[in-house]
Protein backbone atom coordinates (compact mmCIF):
# COMPACT_ATOMS: atom_id res chain seq x y z
CA UNK A 1 0.00 0.00 0.00
CA UNK A 2 2.93 2.35 0.62
CA UNK A 3 3.73 2.55 -3.08
CA UNK A 4 0.15 3.63 -3.83
CA UNK A 5 -0.33 7.41 -4.23
CA UNK A 6 -1.93 9.10 -1.23
CA UNK A 7 -4.95 10.22 -3.24
CA UNK A 8 -5.54 6.64 -4.37
CA UNK A 9 -5.17 5.29 -0.81
CA UNK A 10 -7.70 7.82 0.43
CA UNK A 11 -10.06 6.94 -2.43
CA UNK A 12 -9.77 3.18 -1.77
CA UNK A 13 -10.37 3.77 1.94
CA UNK A 14 -13.52 5.78 1.23
CA UNK A 15 -14.93 3.10 -1.08
CA UNK A 16 -14.09 0.38 1.47
CA UNK A 17 -15.82 2.35 4.26
CA UNK A 18 -18.92 2.85 2.11
CA UNK A 19 -19.04 -0.89 1.36
CA UNK A 20 -18.64 -1.69 5.05
CA UNK A 21 -21.47 0.65 6.00
CA UNK A 22 -23.69 -0.98 3.38
CA UNK A 23 -22.97 -4.43 4.85
CA UNK A 24 -23.56 -3.47 8.51
CA UNK A 25 -27.33 -4.22 8.54
CA UNK A 26 -26.78 -7.85 7.42
CA UNK A 27 -26.02 -9.36 10.88
CA UNK A 28 -28.76 -7.44 12.71
CA UNK A 29 -31.74 -9.54 13.95
CA UNK A 30 -34.29 -7.55 11.97
CA UNK A 31 -32.53 -8.00 8.65
CA UNK A 32 -33.68 -11.61 8.13
CA UNK A 33 -30.56 -12.32 6.07
CA UNK A 34 -30.79 -15.63 4.15
CA UNK A 35 -27.40 -16.90 5.31
CA UNK A 36 -27.73 -20.20 3.47
CA UNK A 37 -28.22 -18.53 0.10
CA UNK A 38 -25.48 -16.01 0.90
CA UNK A 39 -23.02 -18.77 1.80
CA UNK A 40 -23.78 -20.82 -1.32
CA UNK A 41 -23.43 -17.82 -3.67
CA UNK A 42 -20.21 -16.70 -1.98
CA UNK A 43 -18.81 -20.23 -2.25
CA UNK A 44 -19.72 -20.44 -5.95
CA UNK A 45 -18.07 -17.11 -6.65
CA UNK A 46 -14.99 -18.18 -4.73
CA UNK A 47 -14.88 -21.40 -6.75
CA UNK A 48 -14.95 -19.34 -9.95
CA UNK A 49 -11.97 -17.24 -8.82
CA UNK A 50 -9.73 -19.87 -7.21
CA UNK A 51 -8.52 -21.49 -10.48
CA UNK A 52 -6.67 -18.25 -11.19
CA UNK A 53 -4.36 -18.98 -8.26
CA UNK A 54 -3.23 -22.23 -9.87
CA UNK A 55 -0.48 -21.92 -12.49
CA UNK A 56 -1.98 -24.81 -14.47
CA UNK A 57 -5.30 -23.00 -14.98
CA UNK A 58 -4.06 -19.39 -14.92
CA UNK A 59 -3.89 -19.04 -18.70
CA UNK A 60 -6.97 -21.07 -19.57
CA UNK A 61 -9.82 -19.77 -17.41
CA UNK A 62 -11.53 -16.38 -17.09
CA UNK A 63 -9.57 -15.44 -13.99
CA UNK A 64 -9.31 -12.27 -11.97
CA UNK A 65 -11.62 -10.87 -9.36
CA UNK A 66 -14.85 -9.70 -10.86
CA UNK A 67 -14.46 -11.62 -14.11
CA UNK A 68 -17.65 -13.64 -13.61
CA UNK A 69 -20.34 -10.98 -13.19
CA UNK A 70 -23.46 -13.15 -13.87
CA UNK A 71 -23.06 -14.73 -10.44
CA UNK A 72 -22.77 -11.34 -8.74
CA UNK A 73 -25.87 -10.07 -10.52
CA UNK A 74 -27.74 -13.21 -9.49
CA UNK A 75 -26.77 -12.36 -5.91
CA UNK A 76 -28.16 -8.84 -6.42
CA UNK A 77 -31.45 -10.41 -7.55
CA UNK A 78 -31.68 -13.02 -4.79
CA UNK A 79 -30.41 -11.20 -1.71
CA UNK A 80 -31.23 -8.01 0.17
CA UNK A 81 -28.62 -5.25 -0.39
CA UNK A 82 -26.72 -5.72 2.88
CA UNK A 83 -26.27 -9.44 2.20
CA UNK A 84 -25.46 -8.99 -1.50
CA UNK A 85 -22.52 -6.76 -0.53
CA UNK A 86 -20.82 -9.75 1.14
CA UNK A 87 -21.05 -12.26 -1.73
CA UNK A 88 -18.05 -11.03 -3.69
CA UNK A 89 -15.74 -10.54 -0.69
CA UNK A 90 -14.21 -14.07 -0.37
CA UNK A 91 -13.64 -14.45 -4.12
CA UNK A 92 -12.20 -10.94 -4.48
CA UNK A 93 -9.78 -11.44 -1.60
CA UNK A 94 -8.67 -14.85 -2.87
CA UNK A 95 -8.55 -14.01 -6.60
CA UNK A 96 -5.33 -13.65 -8.54
CA UNK A 97 -3.73 -10.21 -8.82
CA UNK A 98 -1.08 -9.90 -11.51
CA UNK A 99 0.29 -6.40 -10.95
CA UNK A 100 1.85 -4.58 -8.05
CA UNK A 101 0.93 -3.37 -5.49
CA UNK A 102 -0.96 -6.61 -4.83
CA UNK A 103 -2.43 -5.64 -1.45
CA UNK A 104 -3.81 -2.31 -2.64
CA UNK A 105 -5.30 -3.86 -5.79
CA UNK A 106 -6.92 -6.69 -3.83
CA UNK A 107 -8.47 -4.33 -1.27
CA UNK A 108 -9.63 -2.02 -4.04
CA UNK A 109 -11.28 -4.76 -6.09
CA UNK A 110 -12.98 -6.19 -3.02
CA UNK A 111 -14.39 -2.83 -1.98
CA UNK A 112 -15.38 -1.86 -5.52
CA UNK A 113 -17.30 -5.06 -6.23
CA UNK A 114 -18.97 -5.09 -2.83
CA UNK A 115 -20.25 -1.54 -3.27
CA UNK A 116 -21.31 -2.17 -6.87
CA UNK A 117 -23.28 -5.32 -6.04
CA UNK A 118 -24.89 -3.55 -3.08
CA UNK A 119 -26.01 -0.65 -5.30
CA UNK A 120 -27.39 -3.08 -7.88
CA UNK A 121 -29.29 -5.05 -5.21
CA UNK A 122 -30.74 -1.86 -3.73
CA UNK A 123 -31.96 -0.81 -7.20
CA UNK A 124 -33.54 -4.20 -7.80
CA UNK A 125 -35.33 -4.13 -4.44
CA UNK A 126 -36.48 -0.54 -4.98
CA UNK A 127 -38.06 -1.49 -8.33
CA UNK A 128 -39.86 -4.49 -6.83
CA UNK A 129 -37.76 -7.03 -8.66
CA UNK A 130 -37.84 -9.80 -6.00
CA UNK A 131 -41.61 -10.09 -6.37
CA UNK A 132 -41.24 -10.97 -10.07
CA UNK A 133 -38.97 -13.98 -9.44
CA UNK A 134 -41.63 -16.28 -8.05
CA UNK A 135 -41.89 -17.78 -4.57
CA UNK A 136 -39.35 -19.98 -2.86
CA UNK A 137 -39.98 -23.66 -3.48
CA UNK A 138 -42.06 -22.92 -6.57
CA UNK A 139 -44.95 -21.29 -4.70
CA UNK A 140 -45.45 -18.70 -7.42
CA UNK A 141 -44.72 -18.46 -11.14
CA UNK A 142 -42.08 -15.91 -12.28
CA UNK A 143 -43.68 -12.77 -13.66
CA UNK A 144 -42.27 -12.73 -17.17
CA UNK A 145 -41.60 -10.63 -19.19
CA UNK A 146 -42.01 -7.94 -16.49
CA UNK A 147 -39.09 -9.43 -14.56
CA UNK A 148 -36.82 -8.18 -17.36
CA UNK A 149 -37.49 -4.49 -16.59
CA UNK A 150 -36.03 -4.31 -13.07
CA UNK A 151 -33.25 -6.69 -14.11
CA UNK A 152 -32.28 -4.39 -16.99
CA UNK A 153 -32.33 -1.32 -14.74
CA UNK A 154 -30.18 -3.19 -12.22
CA UNK A 155 -27.64 -4.02 -14.93
CA UNK A 156 -27.49 -0.34 -15.93
CA UNK A 157 -26.86 0.71 -12.33
CA UNK A 158 -24.25 -2.05 -12.00
CA UNK A 159 -22.44 -0.71 -15.10
CA UNK A 160 -22.75 2.91 -13.99
CA UNK A 161 -21.39 2.37 -10.48
CA UNK A 162 -18.57 0.17 -11.76
CA UNK A 163 -17.61 2.78 -14.38
CA UNK A 164 -17.74 5.65 -11.89
CA UNK A 165 -15.51 3.78 -9.44
CA UNK A 166 -13.11 2.66 -12.18
CA UNK A 167 -12.74 6.23 -13.44
CA UNK A 168 -12.00 7.42 -9.93
CA UNK A 169 -9.16 4.92 -9.47
CA UNK A 170 -7.73 5.81 -12.89
CA UNK A 171 -7.67 9.48 -11.90
CA UNK A 172 -6.15 8.93 -8.45
CA UNK A 173 -3.88 5.89 -8.86
CA UNK A 174 -2.93 6.02 -12.55
CA UNK A 175 -3.00 9.86 -12.67
CA UNK A 176 -5.12 9.88 -15.82
CA UNK A 177 -6.45 13.36 -16.57
CA UNK A 178 -9.88 13.88 -15.03
CA UNK A 179 -11.41 14.79 -18.39
CA UNK A 180 -10.27 11.43 -19.81
CA UNK A 181 -10.60 9.11 -16.79
CA UNK A 182 -14.25 8.15 -17.38
CA UNK A 183 -14.23 8.35 -21.17
CA UNK A 184 -15.74 5.25 -22.78
CA UNK A 185 -15.96 3.20 -19.58
CA UNK A 186 -19.75 3.06 -19.44
CA UNK A 187 -20.28 2.65 -23.18
CA UNK A 188 -17.98 -0.39 -23.30
CA UNK A 189 -19.53 -2.13 -20.32
CA UNK A 190 -23.30 -1.68 -20.70
CA UNK A 191 -23.78 -4.29 -23.44
CA UNK A 192 -21.87 -7.13 -21.74
CA UNK A 193 -23.48 -6.36 -18.37
CA UNK A 194 -26.97 -6.57 -19.87
CA UNK A 195 -26.12 -10.05 -21.15
CA UNK A 196 -24.70 -10.96 -17.74
CA UNK A 197 -27.89 -9.69 -16.11
CA UNK A 198 -30.01 -11.94 -18.31
CA UNK A 199 -27.94 -14.97 -17.27
CA UNK A 200 -28.09 -13.87 -13.63
CA UNK A 201 -31.87 -13.47 -13.85
CA UNK A 202 -32.29 -16.97 -15.25
CA UNK A 203 -30.10 -18.30 -12.46
CA UNK A 204 -32.15 -16.46 -9.83
CA UNK A 205 -35.44 -17.77 -11.25
CA UNK A 206 -34.16 -21.35 -11.22
CA UNK A 207 -32.77 -20.85 -7.71
CA UNK A 208 -36.20 -19.79 -6.48
CA UNK A 209 -37.99 -22.58 -8.37
CA UNK A 210 -39.02 -25.96 -6.99
CA UNK A 211 -35.76 -27.46 -8.27
CA UNK A 212 -33.67 -25.26 -5.95
CA UNK A 213 -30.05 -24.03 -6.13
CA UNK A 214 -28.74 -27.13 -7.92
CA UNK A 215 -30.73 -26.20 -11.03
CA UNK A 216 -28.97 -22.83 -11.14
CA UNK A 217 -25.82 -24.65 -12.26
CA UNK A 218 -27.60 -25.19 -15.59
CA UNK A 219 -27.01 -21.47 -16.19
CA UNK A 220 -23.72 -21.07 -14.32
CA UNK A 221 -21.70 -23.73 -16.12
CA UNK A 222 -22.51 -22.73 -19.74
CA UNK A 223 -22.02 -19.07 -18.87
CA UNK A 224 -18.67 -19.82 -17.27
CA UNK A 225 -17.60 -21.70 -20.40
CA UNK A 226 -18.73 -18.75 -22.52
CA UNK A 227 -16.61 -16.42 -20.39
CA UNK A 228 -13.67 -18.78 -20.90
CA UNK A 229 -14.07 -18.64 -24.69
CA UNK A 230 -14.39 -14.85 -24.59
CA UNK A 231 -11.28 -14.58 -22.39
CA UNK A 232 -9.33 -16.80 -24.78
CA UNK A 233 -10.32 -14.57 -27.70
CA UNK A 234 -9.14 -11.46 -25.88
CA UNK A 235 -5.87 -13.12 -24.89
CA UNK A 236 -5.27 -14.06 -28.52
CA UNK A 237 -6.11 -10.54 -29.68
CA UNK A 238 -3.77 -9.08 -27.05
CA UNK A 239 -1.02 -11.41 -28.26
CA UNK A 240 -1.55 -10.17 -31.83
CA UNK A 241 -1.25 -6.55 -30.72
CA UNK A 242 1.86 -7.35 -28.66
CA UNK A 243 3.48 -9.01 -31.68
CA UNK A 244 2.81 -6.02 -33.89
CA UNK A 245 3.92 -3.57 -31.19
CA UNK A 246 7.22 -5.44 -30.79
CA UNK A 247 7.91 -5.38 -34.53
CA UNK A 248 7.11 -1.67 -34.82
CA UNK A 249 9.30 -0.84 -31.83
CA UNK A 250 12.16 -2.75 -33.43
CA UNK A 251 11.79 -0.67 -36.62
CA UNK A 252 11.59 2.56 -34.61
CA UNK A 253 14.77 1.69 -32.73
CA UNK A 254 16.64 0.94 -35.96
CA UNK A 255 15.24 3.89 -37.94
CA UNK A 256 14.39 6.37 -35.19
CA UNK A 257 13.97 9.20 -37.67
CA UNK A 258 10.58 7.82 -38.77
CA UNK A 259 9.21 7.18 -35.28
CA UNK A 260 5.42 7.38 -35.30
CA UNK A 261 5.19 7.07 -39.09
CA UNK A 262 3.98 3.48 -39.00
CA UNK A 263 1.17 4.21 -36.52
CA UNK A 264 -0.01 7.15 -38.61
CA UNK A 265 0.02 5.11 -41.82
CA UNK A 266 -2.07 2.51 -40.01
CA UNK A 267 -4.52 5.21 -38.92
CA UNK A 268 -4.78 6.68 -42.43
CA UNK A 269 -5.25 3.19 -43.91
CA UNK A 270 -8.10 2.58 -41.48
CA UNK A 271 -9.75 5.87 -42.51
CA UNK A 272 -9.63 4.80 -46.16
CA UNK A 273 -10.96 1.33 -45.33
CA UNK A 274 -13.88 2.82 -43.44
CA UNK A 275 -14.78 5.01 -46.42
CA UNK A 276 -14.62 1.96 -48.69
CA UNK A 277 -17.10 0.16 -46.42
CA UNK A 278 -14.81 -2.74 -45.52
CA UNK A 279 -15.87 -5.23 -42.89
CA UNK A 280 -14.41 -4.82 -39.41
CA UNK A 281 -12.09 -7.83 -39.71
CA UNK A 282 -10.60 -6.64 -43.02
CA UNK A 283 -10.36 -3.10 -41.68
CA UNK A 284 -8.32 -4.29 -38.71
CA UNK A 285 -6.08 -6.36 -40.99
CA UNK A 286 -5.56 -3.28 -43.16
CA UNK A 287 -4.59 -1.22 -40.13
CA UNK A 288 -2.05 -3.91 -39.23
CA UNK A 289 -0.75 -3.72 -42.82
CA UNK A 290 -0.29 0.04 -42.52
CA UNK A 291 1.48 -0.26 -39.19
CA UNK A 292 3.84 -2.99 -40.44
CA UNK A 293 4.41 -1.77 -44.00
CA UNK A 294 8.03 -0.80 -43.26
CA UNK A 295 8.94 -3.77 -41.05
CA UNK A 296 11.35 -4.90 -43.81
CA UNK A 297 13.67 -2.06 -42.81
CA UNK A 298 14.91 -4.44 -40.15
CA UNK A 299 16.81 -6.16 -42.98
CA UNK A 300 18.34 -2.94 -44.33
CA UNK A 301 21.77 -1.90 -42.97
CA UNK A 302 21.44 0.83 -40.35
CA UNK A 303 24.15 2.94 -42.02
CA UNK A 304 21.93 3.27 -45.09
CA UNK A 305 18.77 4.09 -43.14
CA UNK A 306 20.56 6.79 -41.15
CA UNK A 307 22.74 8.17 -43.93
CA UNK A 308 22.76 11.99 -43.95
CA UNK A 309 23.57 12.49 -47.62
CA UNK A 310 21.81 11.34 -50.79
CA UNK A 311 21.73 7.61 -51.49
CA UNK A 312 23.85 6.03 -54.21
CA UNK A 313 22.13 3.86 -56.83
CA UNK A 314 23.40 0.74 -55.07
CA UNK A 315 22.10 1.93 -51.69
CA UNK A 316 18.74 2.73 -53.24
CA UNK A 317 18.54 -0.81 -54.62
CA UNK A 318 19.17 -2.11 -51.11
CA UNK A 319 16.42 0.15 -49.71
CA UNK A 320 14.04 -1.14 -52.39
CA UNK A 321 14.47 -4.66 -51.03
CA UNK A 322 12.66 -3.77 -47.77
CA UNK A 323 9.18 -4.87 -49.01
CA UNK A 324 10.55 -8.36 -49.69
CA UNK A 325 12.38 -8.44 -46.37
CA UNK A 326 9.14 -7.40 -44.65
CA UNK A 327 7.16 -10.12 -46.38
CA UNK A 328 9.68 -12.74 -45.25
CA UNK A 329 9.60 -11.44 -41.67
CA UNK A 330 5.80 -11.73 -41.37
CA UNK A 331 5.35 -14.81 -43.57
CA UNK A 332 4.77 -17.10 -40.58
CA UNK A 333 2.35 -14.78 -38.73
CA UNK A 334 -0.96 -16.35 -39.69
CA UNK A 335 -3.34 -13.68 -38.39
CA UNK A 336 -1.94 -11.01 -40.74
CA UNK A 337 -3.46 -12.76 -43.78
CA UNK A 338 -4.09 -10.06 -46.45
CA UNK A 339 -1.74 -7.66 -44.67
CA UNK A 340 1.25 -9.66 -45.94
CA UNK A 341 0.43 -8.75 -49.56
CA UNK A 342 0.27 -5.05 -48.64
CA UNK A 343 3.69 -5.22 -46.95
CA UNK A 344 5.15 -6.80 -50.11
CA UNK A 345 3.48 -4.57 -52.72
CA UNK A 346 2.93 -1.14 -51.11
CA UNK A 347 5.59 0.43 -53.38
CA UNK A 348 4.04 -0.84 -56.62
CA UNK A 349 2.63 1.87 -58.91
CA UNK A 350 -0.55 1.77 -60.93
CA UNK A 351 1.42 2.31 -64.20
CA UNK A 352 3.72 -0.65 -63.47
CA UNK A 353 6.86 1.38 -62.71
CA UNK A 354 6.99 0.50 -59.01
CA UNK A 355 8.85 -2.20 -57.14
CA UNK A 356 9.58 -4.97 -56.23
CA UNK A 357 7.72 -6.75 -59.09
CA UNK A 358 6.42 -3.95 -61.31
CA UNK A 359 2.76 -4.91 -60.89
CA UNK A 360 0.21 -2.64 -62.57
CA UNK A 361 -3.47 -1.76 -62.21
CA UNK A 362 -5.76 -4.25 -60.50
CA UNK A 363 -2.99 -6.84 -60.25
CA UNK A 364 -1.76 -4.81 -57.27
CA UNK A 365 -3.58 -6.14 -54.17
CA UNK A 366 -6.28 -3.84 -52.78
CA UNK A 367 -4.57 -3.55 -49.39
CA UNK A 368 -1.33 -2.48 -51.06
CA UNK A 369 -3.10 0.26 -53.03
CA UNK A 370 -4.62 1.60 -49.80
CA UNK A 371 -1.33 1.55 -47.87
CA UNK A 372 0.51 3.23 -50.76
CA UNK A 373 -1.82 6.25 -50.54
CA UNK A 374 -1.67 6.36 -46.72
CA UNK A 375 2.14 6.06 -46.76
CA UNK A 376 2.60 8.88 -49.27
CA UNK A 377 0.11 11.11 -47.47
CA UNK A 378 1.85 10.82 -44.12
CA UNK A 379 5.27 11.27 -45.70
CA UNK A 380 4.14 14.55 -47.30
CA UNK A 381 2.42 15.96 -44.21
CA UNK A 382 5.21 15.04 -41.78
CA UNK A 383 7.92 17.55 -40.93
CA UNK A 384 11.43 16.28 -41.67
CA UNK A 385 14.92 17.54 -40.85
CA UNK A 386 15.29 18.94 -44.37
CA UNK A 387 11.78 20.34 -44.92
CA UNK A 388 8.53 21.22 -43.22
CA UNK A 389 5.44 19.13 -43.80
CA UNK A 390 2.96 20.14 -46.46
CA UNK A 391 -0.50 21.34 -45.45
CA UNK A 392 -3.12 18.62 -45.76
CA UNK A 393 -4.92 20.21 -48.75
CA UNK A 394 -1.61 20.46 -50.64
CA UNK A 395 -0.81 16.82 -49.90
CA UNK A 396 -4.25 15.71 -51.09
CA UNK A 397 -3.83 17.80 -54.26
CA UNK A 398 -0.50 16.06 -54.94
CA UNK A 399 -2.11 12.65 -54.45
CA UNK A 400 -4.87 13.61 -56.88
CA UNK A 401 -2.27 14.76 -59.41
CA UNK A 402 -0.54 11.38 -59.22
CA UNK A 403 -3.82 9.39 -59.20
CA UNK A 404 -4.10 7.04 -62.17
CA UNK A 405 -0.35 6.79 -62.72
CA UNK A 406 1.06 6.19 -59.25
CA UNK A 407 -1.99 5.81 -56.96
CA UNK A 408 -5.41 4.22 -57.27
CA UNK A 409 -7.90 7.09 -57.79
CA UNK A 410 -10.55 5.27 -55.73
CA UNK A 411 -8.23 5.16 -52.71
CA UNK A 412 -7.25 8.81 -53.12
CA UNK A 413 -10.91 9.85 -53.24
CA UNK A 414 -11.67 7.75 -50.16
CA UNK A 415 -8.86 9.41 -48.20
CA UNK A 416 -10.03 12.87 -49.29
CA UNK A 417 -13.57 12.14 -48.12
CA UNK A 418 -12.30 10.75 -44.82
CA UNK A 419 -10.16 13.85 -44.20
CA UNK A 420 -13.12 16.12 -44.95
CA UNK A 421 -15.17 14.18 -42.42
CA UNK A 422 -12.65 13.45 -39.68
CA UNK A 423 -9.71 15.81 -40.20
CA UNK A 424 -6.02 15.09 -39.66
CA UNK A 425 -3.58 16.53 -37.17
CA UNK A 426 -0.59 17.12 -39.42
CA UNK A 427 1.12 19.33 -36.83
CA UNK A 428 1.84 16.23 -34.72
CA UNK A 429 3.44 14.39 -37.64
CA UNK A 430 7.01 15.42 -36.93
CA UNK A 431 9.79 13.09 -38.01
CA UNK A 432 13.24 13.64 -39.46
CA UNK A 433 13.85 10.84 -41.91
CA UNK A 434 15.16 10.51 -45.42
CA UNK A 435 12.00 8.59 -46.27
CA UNK A 436 9.80 10.23 -48.88
CA UNK A 437 6.56 9.36 -50.65
CA UNK A 438 7.10 7.12 -53.67
CA UNK A 439 7.39 9.01 -56.92
CA UNK A 440 8.14 12.37 -55.33
CA UNK A 441 11.62 13.95 -55.60
CA UNK A 442 14.05 13.25 -52.78
CA UNK A 443 15.45 16.56 -51.47
CA UNK A 444 18.99 16.84 -50.20
CA UNK A 445 19.47 17.22 -46.44
CA UNK A 446 19.24 20.79 -45.32
CA UNK A 447 17.14 21.88 -48.29
CA UNK A 448 13.72 23.12 -47.25
CA UNK A 449 10.80 23.46 -49.64
CA UNK A 450 8.91 26.71 -49.57
CA UNK A 451 5.68 25.06 -48.44
CA UNK A 452 4.11 26.19 -45.18
CA UNK A 453 4.25 24.05 -42.07
CA UNK A 454 1.66 21.35 -41.70
CA UNK A 455 -1.33 22.48 -39.68
CA UNK A 456 -4.37 20.77 -38.28
CA UNK A 457 -6.81 20.15 -41.12
CA UNK A 458 -10.41 20.32 -40.06
CA UNK A 459 -13.41 18.72 -41.73
CA UNK A 460 -15.01 20.96 -44.25
CA UNK A 461 -15.03 21.76 -47.95
CA UNK A 462 -11.69 20.93 -49.51
CA UNK A 463 -10.09 23.41 -51.91
CA UNK A 464 -9.27 22.09 -55.34
The major β-sheet equals: 2 strands, antiparallel
Chain-averaged pLDDT: 81
Annotation field: number of helices: 19
Instruction: Tell me what portion of residues adopts beta-strand conformation.
Output: under 5%
Helix/strand-derived category reads mainly alpha
Give me the side-by-side strand order of the main sheet: 1-2
How many angstroms separate the termini?
60 Å
Q: Give the number of domains.
A: 2
Low-confidence stretches: 56-66, 426-464
Order of helices and strands: HHHHHHHHHHHHHHHHHHHEE
How would you describe the overall organization of this protein?
The protein has 464 residues and is an all-alpha fold. The chain has two domains: 6-236, no CATH class; 255-457, Orthogonal Bundle (Hypothetical protein af1432), CATH 1.10.3210. 59% of the residues lie in helices and 1% in strands. The chain has 19 helices and two strands. The protein has a two-stranded antiparallel ribbon with strand order 1-2. Helix 1 (6-23) crosses helix 4, helix 11 packs across helix 19 and helix 12 runs parallel beside helix 16 (339-345). It starts with 5 loop residues before the first helix and ends in a 7-residue tail after the last strand.
Key attributes of the depicted protein:
single chain, 464 residues, mainly alpha, Hypothetical protein af1432, 1% strand, disordered C terminus
Quick synopsis:
With 464 residues, the chain is mainly α.
Helices and strands in order:
Blueprint (H helix, E strand, L loop, with lengths): L5 H18 L11 H15 L19 H10 L2 H7 L1 H6 L7 H25 L21 H25 L5 H4 L3 H24 L4 H42 L6 H16 L3 H13 L9 H4 L7 H7 L2 H9 L8 H7 L20 H16 L10 H11 L6 H14 L1 E2 L30 E2 L7
Antiparallel strand pairs: 1-2
Helix pairs in contact: 1-4, 1-6, 1-7, 2-3, 2-4, 3-4, 3-6, 3-9, 4-6, 6-7, 7-9, 9-10, 11-12, 11-17, 11-19, 12-16, 15-16, 16-17, 17-18
